[in-house]
Backbone:
């Protein structure tokens, strides 16, 4: 997954403009809104003492930010979002499994 030399330089050159401060600045309101939402959700757990899964919360927040920034908004059902989180978790599990079997 890691490139070096000429390949890395080409990929870095292609990606750098997308992460320029000027580009990211226009999404600050999205980041701030979603940060406040996750704080609100986590606060409700803190107030009740109920346990929760942080991976799920962070993944949902990430999904919302991607939807708002990359796809200019839009809505997605909770079922679809949960499917996304499950798929991300599965990818992580497969990656870890592959690392273990390669060594």
Residues:
């Amino acid at each position: 997954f890691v490139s070096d030399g000429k390949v890395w330089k080409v990929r870095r050159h292609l990606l750098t403009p997308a992460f320029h401060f000027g580009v990211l600045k226009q999404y600050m309101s999205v980041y701030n809104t979603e940060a406040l939402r996750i704080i609100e959700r986590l606060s409700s757990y803190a107030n009740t003492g109920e346990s929760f899964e942080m991976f799920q919360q962070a993944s949902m927040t990430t999904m919302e930010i991607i939807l708002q920034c990359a796809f200019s908004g839009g809505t997605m059902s909770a079922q679809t979002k949960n499917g996304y989180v499950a798929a991300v978790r599965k990818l992580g599990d497969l990656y870890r499994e592959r690392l273990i079997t390669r060594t």
